[in-house]
Amino acid sequence: MSENRLLIVTGGNRGIGRQIALSAADAGWRVAISYGSNRKAADDMVAASDGRIEAFALDVTAPRSVAHFFEEIEMSMGPAQALVTAAGIDNGPRSITDVDHDFVHSTFAVNVVGLILCCRDFAARAMAKGDAGVIVNMSSMAATIGGRAQKSVYAASKGAVDVFTIGAAKEFAPHGISVFSVRPGVTRTDMTSTMLADPKTRAAIESTIACGAVADPVDIAMPVIDLISGKFNYASGSMLNLGGGGFIT
Known about the structure:
Blueprint: E1 6-10, H1 15-26, E2 30-35, H2 39-47, E3 53-57, H3 63-77, E4 82-85, H4 101-129, E5 133-138, H5 142-145, H6 152-172, E6 177-184, H7 193-197, H8 199-206, H9 217-228, E7 239-242
Parallel strand pairs: 1-2, 1-4, 2-3, 4-5, 5-6, 6-7
Helix pairs in contact: 1-9, 3-4, 4-6
C-alpha cells in the first residue's frame, strides 16, 4: 500500500519529475518535491494537491543545500521510502570541438554529481534507521546511442547515471535498498516544447522512434510509480528503456 508512504522527487516542479510527483500523489503517496528558481510552479502544485505534496528548496550543485533538503523533508514529513532523481539539465547541442569546461562541468554537476549526492543522503538516512527503500534515477535513451547530433556531453552524463546505478544497486542491496535507472526517450515537456513545436523537427525525431511518436510525461511516470511500489525489487540494478520501442535510425 502506498498510502502514507513518502516519495521524494528532485526536479519535481517541472517536466517528467512534475508528472511523476502528480501521478504518485494520485496513487496515494505523499510527495516531497524540490524547486530551484521556479518556486511558483512548486507552490501551485502544493496548493492543488490537497495536502499530499510539499515543496522544498534545493540546489543539487551545492552539497549543503542537498543535506539541508533531506533534513527539512524528514523534519516536516518524516522518513522517505522512495527517491526519484529527476533534477537534470540539457545544455543543448554543441559539437565536441566547441565545448568548454563550463559546458561540460555544469552538465555533470547537475546530472551526475548532484544525483549521486541525493542518492547518498537518501540511502544514508534509510540505512541509519534500518529501513528499506527504492531509488529511481532518471537517465535517458541518449545513453544507449551516445546522444543525438552534437549531444555527446549530455549522453555521457546519462551514461554515468546508468553506471552509478549498477554500482549503487550492488552496494545497497544488503540494506534492502533497490536502485533502478529509467531511460526516457524524447518526451513532451517544457524543455522540449520549442523543439517539438517545429513540425519538421518533430517529424524528423518521430521518424527515428520505432512507435513513431514522442512520449507524453505520463508514459514515463506510470512505470516509475510501479518501480517505487517495491514489486520489482529483485530487478534492482536494471535499466528500463522507455523509448517507444527504441531507435530505428
